[in-house]
Amino acid sequence: MITLQNIEKVYRTSSIETLALNNININIRKGEFVSIMGPSGCGKSTLLNIMGLLDEPSKGNVAIDGQLVKSYRDKELAALRNQKIGLIFQSFHLINDLSVLDNVEIPLLYRSRNGGSASGKSRLDHAKEALEKVGLSNRTKHFPRQLSGGQKQRVAIARAIVGNPEIILADEPTGNLDSVMGNEIMSILQGLNNDGATIIMVTHDESMAKKTDRLIRLFDGTQVGDSVLRAGGAGPGDNPGHFTHNPTSQLLNP
Question: Are the CB atoms for 32 and 51 separated by under 8 Å?
Fold first, then answer.
């Protein structure tokens, strides 16, 4: 589903060069729940951003469903991301001036402006369904400032899943929450995975990572571990597989 081959990421300024990721090779299979761990600054979020097509590697190849994305234009990458990938951020990234319902609708609004056919009523219905899945159907008219941290994260999850993405990328989704709220958010992610979503989660919490199928460890930008925790994880020996060169992939026109 997501394949990274020989990924390297270098950040350069006029006076310094920083190697953020070094020779990363990972294959995420459809339906897996994978956690990524490592100390602060080891490249976890950089890796997630590359998987989410938010950033480009300096070297190496990224493929989604076997299709290389290297030659995609920005508009094509954005369309692919909107169709295939749901993003959950540690700091929520909600728009304070919009209601909970309007925040969740945003990905569908973007899709509609780029050729989607969903009506306004249909978009709102889908947003309400997503909020119901995360237990916030009674908060549709509230604003982010009226919510707790756990509720904000639920809204962020609803926004990520409203377009029924096959892939969910979560960057420290429980990092700003207490243990009770963290476990509730983890239960929601496990439920989404049980329903078929492929989930990749960056976390500092070993107890949360142990609830996933597979654990990838990074240290100083290098992959130092890949362990199967439950049946179904691909594991360190899994073959990254083939890439297909096709910049006009059918993924953009499902």
Answer: no
pLDDT one-digit tens code per residue, 7-32? 999 999 888 999 999 999 999 999 99
pTM (two decimals)? 0.86
Contacts of 59 (CB under 8 A, 6+ apart): 6, 7, 8
Q: In this structure, is the dihedral angle defined by the CA atoms of residues 126, 130, 131 and 137, taken in order, positive or negative?
A: positive
Burial class (CB in 10 A: 0-12, 13-18, 19+), 49: middle
Q: What is the pLDDT of residues 105-116, one digit of tens each?
A: 999 988 766 555
Taking the C-alpha atoms of residue 104 and residue 191, their distance in angstroms, rounded to an integer, is 19
- Which domains can be identified in the chain, with CATH numbers? 2-252 (3.40.50.300)
Query: Vertex 27, ends 45 and 167: CA angle to 5°?
Result: 60
Residue 15 CB burial class (10 angstroms; 0-12, 13-18, ≥19): exposed
222-228 and 33-37 beta bridge pairing: unpaired
Report which DSSP code applies to 29: P
Q: Which residue has the tokens 């008219």?
A: 141
Distance CA 19, CA 60 (A): 14
